[in-house]
Design goal:
The chain is of the alpha/beta class. The chain has 13 helices and 12 strands. The chain has a 6-stranded parallel beta sheet, with helices on both faces. The chain has a 6-stranded mixed beta sheet with strand order 7-6-8-9-10-12, sandwiched between helices.
Length: about 325
């Protein structure tokens, strides 16, 4: 038999209204009353009717996440940060993939609308003007993580990809390298691609190093992109000494191919990655990399979204500092 609030009230000797206040964390009761009610909830196996509460409060207590369908390990850290913060505030999370390049974004937005989510977090997707129109029409708080839309009012939390890429290449230069390649970047990606390419180029030029387009190998940020890039680099007449990889997966691909062709990292080729995902310190050698605080970004983003849901206040955008993590994949010449 399903327990009700009335059963909790009878078992504890307090009013139904007080039980309701404890269940919904509304305050106005003593710690002793809260303890008694929570114990009765546990003993009687009471479960809240979330749907009924949603009808009364006109909220679903659900936060939606839309992300690309890409096998990149750091996405899990963002989701974990969102889920942990949502749980603290009594929210549930639903997640959907919008395709590799956001080709299913419209369907994802429709699903979120049907589920009546209270707020929405979108990360690592490039949004078109018609996408923004649909998002605005949802009339709920929306936040972007690890992406932004220039000229849009949609708030975001991300690192400065241009500055981070510049710093990574400059780090290699400071360690004596001038024959530096770029691997794995998607040149049509305006979010994580274009800024990282420009950061790479500007770092070289600002230190008087001539650009060589043969040292740029495009890709999809993947492990395989790293292996293919290293195949191309190994054929160059003027050999490279270092590679800036636009993801840790790509860096691992470079290291893997180096091992297969008899080259040592970092003795023959120095490698620096991007993201500071788990594989960066599980690799052999451990990969020096640009650290993006993904868990923090997810947690902070969710906190700001929930605050906006409750207060209707505008969410402020923020550029989160990155960190260059030194490990063992870069050699000083």
């Amino acid at each position: 038999m399903v327990s009700t609030i009335k059963d909790i009230a009878k078992a504890t000797g307090v009013s139904i209204a007080t039980v309701s206040r404890v269940i919904n964390d509304l305050g106005g009761y003593s710690p002793e009353v809260e303890r008694k009610v929570q114990q009765a909830i546990k003993d009687l196996g009471y479960r809240r009717n979330v749907n009924a509460r949603s009808l009364v409060s006109n909220t679903s207590k659900i936060i939606g996440i839309i992300m690309p369908d890409v096998a990149t390990s750091y996405y899990g850290d963002i989701v974990s940060g969102i889920e942990d913060e949502a749980s603290v505030h009594g929210y549930n999370v639903i997640l959907t993939h919008a395709g590799v390049e956001g080709n299913r974004l419209h369907e994802s937005l429709e699903m979120m609308s049907e589920r009546r989510v209270d707020g929405l977090i979108i990360f690592s997707l490039s949004l078109e003007e018609h996408d923004i129109d649909v998002i605005v029409d949802l009339n709920i708080p929306v936040l972007l993580i690890a992406t932004e839309v220039a000229g849009s009012q949609i708030p975001y939390i991300k690192v400065d990809d241009y500055a981070a890429s510049y710093a990574a290449v400059e780090y290699l230069i400071q360690h004596g390298h001038s024959k530096i390649a770029l691997a794995g970047v998607n040149k049509t990606d305006p979010i994580a691609g274009v800024p990282r390419i420009q950061g790479y180029k500007d770092a070289l030029l600002s230190h008087g190093i001539t650009l060589d387009n043969q040292r740029i190998q495009y890709g999809d940020f993947s492990f395989d992109a790293g292996k293919k890039a290293m195949d191309a680099f190994s054929q160059l007449e003027n050999p490279i000494t270092a590679v800036f990889c636009v993801s840790d997966e790509t860096a691992l691909g470079i290291i893997s191919r180096c091992y297969e062709i008899g080259k040592s990292v970092p003795d023959d080729i120095s490698v620096i990655g991007y993201d500071n995902s788990k594989i960066s310190y599980m690799s052999s050698p451990p990969i020096s990399t640009i650290a993006q605080p993904f868990y923090k970004m997810g947690k902070l983003g969710c906190s700001r979204l929930i605050l906006s849901i409750g207060t209707k206040e505008k969410i402020s955008s923020e550029i989160i500092p990155f960190e260059l993590v030194e490990r063992a994949s870069v050699k000083t010449l």
